[in-house]
Amino acid sequence: YQRRVHGGLTYQEGSIYTIIYPASGSSADWAYDTAKVQYPYGVELRDTGVHGFILPASQIVPCGEEILAAVMAMMNYANIHP
């Protein structure tokens, strides 16, 4: 599933292993297995390797809007699928 927010970037949902990079032992793995969180998640923000974790000021608000929309969609899903 992919969704674009107000013409911004497209984000994907899926396992960390399949959509970001092969990894095990992530915080999402721990949350699911140890803390019994039903819907753990990991988020990679909009940079594609150019700026790292220091986004230009012009990208901060759009990034926040995209992540807010993602969190709202996740909460909606969790409410429908308890």
Write out the strand line-up for the largest beta sheet, numbering strands in chain order. Answer: 1-2
Uncertain runs with pLDDT below 50, 5 residues or more? none
Q: Total strand count, please?
A: 2
Helicity range: 40-55%
Identify the overall geometry: globular
Write structural notes for this entry.
This protein has 82 residues and is mostly helical. Helix content is 43%, strand content 7%. The chain has a two-stranded antiparallel ribbon with strand order 1-2. It is globular and about 40 Å long. The mean pLDDT is 81.
Looking at this protein, list some descriptive labels.
mainly alpha, 2 strands, 3 helices, two-stranded antiparallel sheet, 82 residues, 43% helix, globular
What's a quick, concise take on this entry?
By secondary structure, the protein is mainly alpha-helical. It has helices at residues 16-19, 27-33, 57-80, and strands at residues 2-4, 10-12.
Draw up the topology in text:
Blueprint (H helix, E strand, L loop, with lengths): L1 E3 L5 E3 L3 H4 L7 H7 L23 H24 L2
Antiparallel strand pairs: 1-2
